[in-house]
């Protein structure tokens, strides 16, 4: 088997990708779940999920967690440098595959593959080009359980954050929103399913709004997100 790292976001696409790889025949020996964590707030980058819940996910899955600590708003140069240093460390351990849950964003896949090639890695994309309606349906039917941890205010209002990924949600999503949120419409937290030994227990906390200025863009361009704070029990 090829030694690999798995780029784990804690969300739906990561979970389904890991499930795909868990089926026989197994091609990869996954040595680490690698997650970018905001070093200021100790939360999963973009998703806003607390580090404690991330650690519980990894423990329930049974794969060691490696947290890449990144600044609150890193430049692309900073992020690339941190990731390259991390990949070089893994390369010394004989790891040369990096697995992602990407579905159809061609530019993102190309970026990843180009950065990986710099340090002798190859990218693996288990759910690439599978229709997103099919994927989210499969996710639900397999018994995965997840909630929307954050939503982009441009496409989804406050009422969506904290909702479970289920049939009711799929019916309520606007037609313009990808059902898997592949364009960044939402990010999720998965707390149960076939890849977990036991479910992750949490309570719902406050819903908060955060506004960001897009890096390297016009300072007048803002992106706002609604976040639901998920509190470990």
Written account of the structure:
This protein is of the alpha/beta class and 233 residues long. It contains six helices and ten strands. The strands form two sheets. Strands 1, 2, 3, 4, 5 and 6 form a six-stranded mixed beta sheet that branches. Strands 8-7-10-9 form a four-stranded antiparallel beta sheet, covered by helices on one side. The longest helix is centred in the middle third of the chain and has 16 residues. It is globular and about 45 Å long. The protein starts with a strand and ends with a strand.
Q: Low-confidence parts, pLDDT < 50 over ≥5 residues?
A: 215-220
| Residue share in β-strands | 25-35%
Share in helix: 25-40%
Number of helices: 6
What is the N-to-C succession of helices and strands? Answer: EHEEHEHEHEHEHEEE
